[in-house]
Amino acid sequence: MTDFIIKSSQRHISVVSFINNIFCVLVLFYIVIYPPFILAVYIPDNIRLSIEMGILFYLTAYILVKKRLKIDALLITPLLVIFFILMLTDNHFFSSSAYFLAKLILFILLINALLSSSHLLDSVRKMWVFIACIFAIFSILAFISFITSLASFYPWEFSSGRYFLHHPILGNIVMRHFIGHTEVYSVVGYMMEGVYLGFFYGLNIISANYLIKNTKTRNKFIVLNMLAGVITFSTTFILFFIFYFLAKFINTMKYANAIKYLLIINATFLTMFVLLMTDYFKYTSILDRLQNIFFSLNIILNNSIDMLLFGNGVNFLYDNKKVSIDSGSLRLILEYGIILTFMVTGLFVKYAIHNKYLILFLLFYSLSIPIFNFPFLYILVAIVYCAYSLEELNKSTDMISEPSK
Length: 405
What we know:
The two termini are 43 Å apart. Among the domains are: 1-116, no CATH class; 285-386, no CATH class. The protein has helices at residues 2-32, 45-66, 76-87, 92-116, 118-147, 194-211, 215-230, 235-251, 257-277, 286-301, 305-310, 316-321, 328-352, 356-366, 375-401, and strands at 154-159, 162-167, 171-177, 183-189. Strands 1-2-3-4 form a four-stranded antiparallel β-sheet. 70% of the residues lie in helices and 6% in strands. It has 15 helices and four strands.
């Protein structure tokens, strides 16, 4: 009888593990069929929607079986109603809004599902770490193979007038100016731009404490992602992590907080001065991004009340002015309106507030790229928040279980 119970338990664990692995594969596929991955260009909208619906159905069923519906999940009801209404319309703006709402619904459901099962959380977390390491290794191999001519990269026109140096396995590389007239080869991997790939690696570095428990393994993971991030030669990545490691170093000093803040401010001004003196920004896209930000702000400030609240429509600026919006925060306001912007930013603040560097990182990058359109951001923030929550719960449980002295 005991053997039967043990075998039944083992079979149950195997089935659960198999289902969790299938779910992880589905999530991975969901991530790479959306921007900023290049694959997104070749995937029809109906395929994306099918994958998204499959994940939403799985998460809903999982939560119902576990019977652990959190209060936050009740937000899904009005979102679902709006989602299905928008999907029934033929209007491009409404259908695009529906896709965006689906990300929010999936985000909330995923958090509920991961909080209800440490096994599912571990599976998704291991999947993320594995894929992050593969991407980083391939980026480093691509860079080394290219500069040493160990592998052949051939010109590939990704879009009109936009070329990559392409390798079918290692990904893509593009030439750009770095400091002065120095030409460097930026690894963009399987994404559309180096800044997007740098954002991915930066997220891994900032979130490493919640992704990997073992200190040695975590440090290797950070170094791997840092190397992969540096060879994107992304200005945003390099600037943020200069200040990040500077701030962490200054925080280790035994000075009063006021002195620490003063040191950080002085170091920031010194760094910016050096970059300005070397004409660094002249050879980056930062000036174009700033111009687009001010252009977008001008449109927002001159909007009518209804457009300010509900937005101008997806890709409004590009369709009408032939200018793309780089700032994620401004893009949200301009395309979807203030109401949805407050909802999105509120959710991210709530689920990332435990990590001040993660909040600063998202704020910094939201000024330069449309981060809220990337599904991988929602997946990682959900993983990190749930890992943090379960860690805090275990600490509380250990404190309660300790015998009173």
